[in-house]
UniProtKB/TrEMBL annotation:
Domain of life: Bacteria
Organism: Sulfurospirillum diekertiae
Name the UniProt record assigns to this protein: Uncharacterized protein
Length: 629
């Protein structure tokens, strides 16, 4: 601990203060050992079993492609880095020597043991009437929080002592965005010029993280600094701003052409264009909504969280980098932000027990770094983590629908509710690299609705009705029989085969070529039950124990391995068939990798389910998978 104190002192002396419009943002370095869960950056999905290699949700986070291409990422995680290894094939959870517990212990109690959440909820003073849940979803809890931000307009409202300092300067009263995606306002206080707030909505191709099936849906908004909105003489120009945003789209989605400028337009002409990199002080606002099938895009009025990112230091993936899992975290809990170690400040606001938004605490903020981070080369080193499938620490913008379709409110594939039935009105766009439908590719590899590798009853019912010998498939789709674990892997292999047939035969599309709604949207009862379950996390404020809640422990968290592929508990005790997986063994002999996980996922690099080069970019111009006539 003495060396940690010295390193912290040196880091504080070296770190430049982060200057916003209202003054200096200064944080402090804290050791992750001070957190209840020092591995909050590792999400619950990373602990699932992959069914003897018959499910591969790992590839959608752990890949080499963006890093290999130097496209806003230098954190390869599918074997290209000898330090990180291959996170598709091994539950490695790299060791951190100063920690007292192993990262292979699953800390996400709410997800692993939903009955414990229920018990805590029953003891809570914040129990609620479940019959009023639909009204709860209609309540606007965003506006009250926005009113607390106060101060100046901009990315930093200037209230040094306020935890609302970095609440995004985006008012729900100005939403939805107009047809061109720009968020306009009637308020002079919120307008940068004319009626423009500077924010623009992004419509992107979703997959199994925030989807109606997962119980959470997004709105995504981007804003660039004022100089990007001005012409050469400093006059406000909507046309220049649109040009700069379109250029940035090509920068992030890797569509720059030889005749594209080397710098941005207008007054931002001195800002260089860097492939895969956002300019300094780019902002993202991310309201995360409950699912309400009665609402446009399934986005309920009530938000679960308001998330915010602002880029305060440039990040170049080609520079010499350092990945230090033992580095302290740089944050300011009082001001409500955390440094992601790759140039961005992250802030988040989540529901309190009564449903009002509150600033997130350090451990809650650290969860954000698990997805939004990278390896950085500047000094001093701060904790980094992150996925290898982000571009400059972001997910949504790289997956943006090209051009006009993507400059719009997030609509979850043009969702509508017709005569009480959820309907999709958009097809499956081709992935640029695989030239397969992005959604179909997800179904083939995950063989489920989400990154947990499970599916709701309504989705399984659709598959059972659709995938039958009578319809020309090689076999009938049957629900997994967990009572016969000796045949479970063979059952899952059959699922892989049948899901592949379903996608290849275009049975996952409607006759119009749209994605089947049963694969995208839950039933009203499933959506409501999901919202009720999550609200129990809200009522108990157990966010650090997991935000994803299921009616029962997902089967992908249970042990079904045969003797040949067996592993034990961390303390050497053997697992029993069907037992909930709470931990996995670690390396105890090797010096350099002591404490790292050693269990194989059984995903075979030679298998069709493996993809170490997945790149989350859509074809341009946009091409949809054609339905079979």
């Amino acid at each position: 601990m003495a060396s940690l104190g010295f390193n912290r002192l040196i880091s504080l002396l070296c770190l430049s203060p982060i200057v916003g419009f209202g003054g200096t943002l200064m944080g402090e370095f804290i050791s992750r050992t001070t957190l209840h869960n020092p591995y909050a950056n590792i999400p619950a999905q990373c602990y699932i079993e992959t069914g003897g290699g018959t499910q591969n949700a790992c590839m959608f986070c752990h890949t080499n492609a963006p890093a290999r291409a130097h496209l806003g990422n230098n954190n390869p995680q599918a074997g290209l880095s000898t330090v990180t290894g291959n996170l598709q094939t091994t539950y490695s959870f790299a060791p951190v020597t100063q920690q007292t517990i192993a990262a292979t212990i699953n800390p996400w109690e709410n997800t692993l043991y939903p009955e414990r959440l229920e018990a805590a909820y029953q003891k809570s003073a914040n129990r609620f009437d479940e019959s009023t849940m639909l009204e709860y979803l209609k309540h606007d809890n965003w506006s009250d929080a926005y009113a607390k931000r106060g101060g100046k307009m901009g990315w930093d409202n200037g209230q040094d002592s306020s935890p609302w300092r970095l609440f995004p300067d985006l008012s729900p009263s100005d939403l939805p965005a107009k047809e061109d995606g720009f968020v306009r306002t009637q308020s002079k206080e919120r307008a940068i010029f004319g009626d423009m707030t500077g924010w623009r909505a992004i419509n992107f191709m979703p997959y199994g993280i925030f989807t109606p099936m997962s119980g959470s849906v997004s709105g995504i908004y981007i804003r660039l600094p004022k100089t990007f909105m001005q012409d050469e003489k400093g006059a406000w120009s909507e046309a220049i701003y649109a040009q700069n945003l379109d250029l940035l789209e090509r920068v992030i989605t890797d569509r720059l052409e030889a005749n594209d400028p080397q710098t941005y337009y207008g007054k931002a002409h001195d800002v260089e264009v860097h492939r895969g990199i956002y300019p300094l002080y780019t902002e993202f606002a991310h309201p995360l909504h409950y699912v309400d099938l009665r609402a446009k895009g399934t986005r309920a009025t009530r938000v679960k969280e308001i998330r915010y990112m602002v880029k305060t230091k440039m990040f170049y993936p080609g520079e010499a980098v350092e990945k230090d899992e033992d580095a302290p975290i740089y944050l300011n809990e009082k001001q409500g932000w955390i440094n992601n170690g790759a140039g961005w400040l992250l802030a988040g606001f989540i529901e309190d027990a009564k449903g009002n938004l509150r600033p997130q605490k350090a451990e809650e903020l650290m969860q954000c770094i698990g997805c939004h981070s990278d390896n950085y080369g500047f000094e001093p080193s701060a904790f980094t983590s992150g996925s290898s499938n982000t571009i400059d620490s972001t997910w949504a913008f790289p997956r943006k629908f090209p051009e006009k379709l993507g400059w719009a409110e997030m609509d979850y594939l043009a969702y509508t509710l017709k005569e009480g039935k959820a309907t999709s009105n958009r097809g499956d766009p081709l992935n640029r690299k695989t030239q397969q439908g992005e959604f179909g590719y997800f179904l083939k590899h995950v063989v489920g609705a989400n990154l947990y590798g499970v599916m709701p009853a309504s989705m399984e019912a659709f598959l059972m009705e659709t995938i039958t010998k009578a319809h020309g498939f090689s076999d009938d789709w049957r629900a997994l029989d967990l009572q016969h674990p000796e045949t479970l892997v063979s059952q899952q292999r059959l699922h892989v085969k049948l899901m592949g047939e379903c996608v290849d035969r275009k049975a996952y599309l409607t006759p119009e070529g749209f994605i089947q709604p049963s694969l995208l949207y839950p039933t009203e009862r499933e959506a409501l039950n999901g919202a009720i379950g999550y609200r129990k996390v809200v009522a108990t404020q157990r966010f650090t124990l997991g935000k994803d809640v299921f009616a029962k422990t997902p089967f992908t968290f249970r042990y079904f391995r045969n003797a040949k592929e067996a592993y034990t508990h961390l303390d050497g005790r053997p697992y029993q068939i069907g037992e909930i997986i709470t931990d996995r063994p670690v390396e105890k002999e090797a010096i350099l990798t002591e404490g790292a996980g050693i269990t194989e996922t059984l995903i075979d690099e030679k298998d069709a389910l493996y993809d170490g080069e997945y790149l989350p970019l859509l074809n341009d111009p946009l091409v949809y998978v054609k339905a079979l006539k």
